[in-house]
Every structure is written in C-alpha cells, then in structure tokens.
DNA sequence: TTCTCTGCAAATAATTTGCACCCAT
DNA sequence: ATGGGTGCAAATTATTTGCAGAGAA
C-alpha cells in the first residue's frame, strides 16, 4: 500500500505543524477548510489515522473524549488539565527515570512508554478560586 | 447534593469490584443486567460519572475510545496492549522514579501522574507470529 | 414528604464506512 | 491505466439529556 501525497494530506500536515500541536480532527478540519473549502471531515479523519499509523504524526489517546493529533514525533510527554482539557507538552528526562523493562512487565513486548500527568492549569486555578469565593458568599 | 445508595448503585459497585477492574460502561451494563434486567444503560453511565467524581471509583484517562472505570483507587499504573486493547495493572515503585514536581511544570497544580506503557501482550505476540507465517506462505 | 434517582426514548457527539468519481504515480 | 484518495451522505458507536414517575432519606 503506497502513500500518495495529495493536496489534502499536505494541507493537513502543514496546519498541524503550524498549530504546534494537539488538535482534534474537528479543529484541524476548521483550519484546513479556510484554504480548501471543499475538503471533507471524513478525509481529515482518514488522513489523521493513516498518517499516525505511518508514524508521521502522533495520535494522543486520552480516554473517552476526542482524539488529538500531534506533529512532533520526537519523544515527549504531556500534561493534561482536568478542568479545561488543555494539553501541553512536557520535557522530561526520561532516561533519568526508571522505566519499565520487559522483566518488570512479564511477557509483554513494550512498544512505548509515556507519562500522563494530570493537573489544573494556572488559568483554571484562578477560575476555581473565584468559584469558591462565590459559594461562600451564597452560604452567608 | 446527597448521594443515595440505590440498588443500582450498589450493584454497579459490586460488579466493578468483582471484575477486578477496567470495565467500560457497556461491559458493566451487560454484567449488571444479568441480575437486574431492567437497569438502563443511562443509569450506568450516570453512576459511573457520579461515583468517580465522588472518588469512590476511578476513571481511567488512558488510551482507547471508551472510558474505563476502575474500582481500586490506590495508586497504580497500567499497561495497554495495542493489539487487543486489554489493560492490565502495573505495580511500579514510582517513588524510585523522578516524577514531575510543580517546579518542572510551571504553574500547574499536579493532581496525578500516571505512566502509560503500551505493548503487545503475550497472547497477541503469538497471534502475530502466526499471521507472519501465513503471509510468508502466501508469498511463496 | 422531599428531592434524588431511574427508565425510556430521543438527542448529541465523535467517528467510520459505502460508493461513485477523481487524480497522483 | 491502476489503485489509492476524495467528497458526500448515511451508518455506527459512545455518551448525554429531558421528562415523568419511583423510591431512599
């Protein structure tokens, strides 16, 4: 199965690269559409799947909600805000961490290992602080 | 908002506990249905969401399109088979690893940190080996 | 009694697929 | 010219929601 470089595919890659990462199929669709109005959402989905399978982009699978795709294939981890669902890159020196080896995970062939850190981003911390204040006021 | 302990809720918790973890709403629904045929899938969804918000069960934010829920709230990681999508628990000494601290992730309040290891489980390794053999035969 | 919870059905959201035509190689 | 790629619409899959009645506190 040969991969062909179509205009659509090129556009998708360019936008993904430009955006600096973590777009959903839908977000990407909206962007690509501006310069290629007749592209179909299905095409975006199909290509994201194909390109990530080919290792050209990376698929981030964070449970349940929408898949996100990332242009940078180099090794890095992510931090995920549980409030607003924003995802940011994380530069960690994984070589300094003790990471599972086949011996620690009996029988498995390990293909990847990444750290998912969850937290509350600065913006959401502010929002939450405000909410708490409001609640207090209501009670009184 | 008070939480009430209904039969449905009790059943869901019991089955989740019994199963030793990582069920999707749908899988859980099928199990609970055996002893409670009139339960609705919507109830399962609603309760999984509520119970995980209350900290009684855990929502796994890892790979896969469906959300999965876990009874064991204690800290542990998971390994995910990229072939059959099975998820198994992983006991790792995270204290021995250097794990992100607030200083490494500027501004974030860190709520969790989980290692997501992907790989191919023993069963799938066998399956894949068999497939390869078949392909070779076809070529000849 | 009060208010949360439930079942049902219908609505949304996210993604995939069938098909006929298009176009990169 | 061949076979992968595309757009469109329809189909699936996963999850959520409105509502009226049920049942835990």
In words, what does this structure look like?
- Chain A is an alpha+beta fold and 140 residues long.
- Chain A has two domains: 1-74, Winged helix-like DNA-binding domain superfamily/Winged helix DNA-binding domain (Arc Repressor Mutant, subunit A); 79-140, no CATH class.
- In chain A, 39% of the residues lie in helices and 21% in strands.
- Chain A is built from four helices and six strands; from the N terminus they run αβααβββββα.
- In chain A, the strands form two sheets. Chain A has a three-stranded antiparallel β-sheet with strand order 1-3-2. In chain A, strands 5-4-6 form a three-stranded mixed β-sheet.
- In chain A, strand 2 (58-60) and strand 3 form a beta hairpin.
- In chain A, helix 1 packs across helix 2 (25-35) and helix 2 (25-35) packs across helix 3.
- The longest helix of chain A is centred in the C-terminal third of the chain and has 18 residues, at 122-139.
- In chain A, 23% of the residues are buried.
- The A-B interface holds A 61-64, 67, 79-82, 90, 92-93, 96-100, 104-105, 107-122, 125 and B 59-68, 79, 81-82, 90, 92-93, 96-100, 104-105, 107-122, 125.
- Strand 6 of chain A pairs antiparallel with strand 6 of chain B, so a sheet runs across the interface.
- Chain A binds a DNA duplex (25 and 25 nucleotides) through residues 1-6, 8-9, 24-26, 38-43, 45-47, 49, 64-67.
């Amino acid at each position: 199965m040969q991969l062909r470089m179509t205009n659509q595919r090129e556009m998708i890659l360019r936008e993904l690269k430009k955006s600096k990462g973590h777009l959903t199929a839908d977000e990407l669709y909206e962007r690509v559409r501006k310069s290629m109005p007749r592209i179909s959402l299905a095409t975006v989905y199909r290509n994201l799947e194909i390109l990530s399978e080919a290792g050209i982009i990376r698929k981030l699978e964070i449970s349940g909600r929408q898949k996100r795709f990332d242009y940078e294939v180099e090794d890095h981890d992510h931090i995920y805000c549980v409030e607003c669902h924003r995802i940011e890159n994380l530069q960690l020196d994984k070589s300094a961490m003790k990471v599972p080896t086949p011996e620690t995970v009996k029988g498995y062939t390990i293909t990847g290992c990444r750290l998912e850190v969850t937290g509350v981003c600065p913006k959401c911390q502010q929002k939450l602080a405000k909410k708490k204040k409001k609640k207090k006021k209501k009670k009184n």
